[in-house]
Fold this protein.
Amino acid sequence: MRFVKMIATQVKTWFPAPVVYAHCDGPCGVYDPASARIAAEAVLSMTKKILDLQPPSGNDAQAMAAYENTLSRFIAIKEEQAQLAKKELLILWTDYFKPVHLEQFPDLHTKFWNVAKLCSACKVEVSLQHASELMDAIKEIQEMFWATKNRTDVVWYTAS
């Protein structure tokens, strides 16, 4: 074991690791608000599906079971994706955005606080309004994010 440590130490002196610098916790390209947008799109889609789902009429137990199963799945996906959107946004807020970005966007903290609250609202409610507001808020954050990289050419698009 001692021999291995001695060799490892010697190799480090022969081939030192280069010093690297980054403005964020990871190399550029790691962060992107697209993952939050994709999750929010699922929230919006599931919200629409929940609101459109009609319970069966009559006393058909099998139809009711199928309805409840579908509704449960839509709800689970909506809540899971709202939590994922929140996680992705919080990572951007806490890991990517730095104090220098506050000079460019003085309302940065307020925007992230509000979008995190929207994610929570979308988890506990079935609100088309809040799901749509979540998409709008993420669009604003995307624009802020790309502006910090001097990229105004990144287009907002949705899958739907």
